[in-house]
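LAB NOTEBOOK - FOLDING QUEUE
OPERATOR: T.R.
BATCH SIZE: 2
PURPOSE: Compare the predicted structure-token outputs for two unrelated chains run back to back under identical settings.
PRIORITY: normal
REVIEWER: second-year student, initials M.K.

ITEM 1
FIELD SEQUENCE / FIELD STRUCTURE:
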Amino acid sequence: MDNLTVVDHPLLKRDLTVLRRDETPHGQFRQTVSNAAAILAYEAMRDIDLRETEIETPLEATTGYELAEDVMVVPIMRAGLGMVDGFVRYVPEARVGHLGMQRDEETYRPVDYYSNIPEGIEDAHVFVVDPMLATGGSASFAINHLKEHGGQTFTFACLVAAPEGVRRLGEEHPEVPVVTAVLDRELDENAFIRPGLGDAGDRIFGTREEAS
């Protein structure tokens, strides 16, 4: 899996434990997703291009740096929305697109229902974000959609990945790196990641029955 980077960070491991725990309430879950996404963003943007710029300190002129690439963050809705704040924490000037997709529970294939992509995607480094990379169907579908809109440079970031999804992205979009907090064991018969953390969207937005 040459396209995969698993971020090894103690705070990320701690946050992932909070996310996996069944009794974590949705408010804490939502905040932890955002915090974990910020750590992923820090690593995912490690190789982003810079350019030199001349600045004035209070004492003298010196050389500084600024981003040489436009940054665009595109969450796969709805669960991907939980990662946006973490990704724009370090790059507040980033533009944010939206792709609405859901999984057909019979075929497990993605179905799109909404798309709003800012202009300038052809010149941007696009970070596609979704907490889970399961079959890889939604991720691949999203990247294809963004390529059709002119996107050229992509990174896919998720909190939990399954080997099946990583392989599929590697086959269908070999130039797209995948950055994740953990590579889990497998998908089950319902295409849920094991051990996973359940339905990330339901847990972020409080639309499942909370554990008592």
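ITEM 2
FIELD SEQUENCE / FIELD STRUCTURE:
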Amino acid sequence: MLDIHVPLMLFVLVLFLVLLVVLNRMLYKPLIKFMDDRDESIANDLNAARSLSGNSEALHAEAERNLDEARSKASEIRHKSVEEAKVLAESRADNRRSELDKEYNIFIDNLQSEKESLRNSLLSQMPLFKESLKAKFSKM
């Protein structure tokens, strides 16, 4: 039947134990160390990401404040520019109005003088018109 060989069994047992020790030193310990280092690295990266995330939120809030401040300054500058443009346009319009008023007054004065000269001319020629009218009426 089956023979049990004790020296062979002892040899296999010793070989198994030696293999276990060798594998423990060469494979299992470095593998466990690698996995522990990897877990620690992942934990450190997560902590760094959380701190950067918190920091980025603060930076985002600061950027929003800066944008709001810039928008308000731009609005103030735009409003100031519009007001300055209105003042400038109003002064130009006033200058033009005054020039037009002067030209109108000169035109009115010229018109009055022409009216007077025409009236005087017509009055001076009135006797000729009377003579002309009398001649035409007499012909009729």
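REVIEWER COMMENT (ITEM 2): The chain has a mean pLDDT of 91.
FOLLOW-UP: none requested
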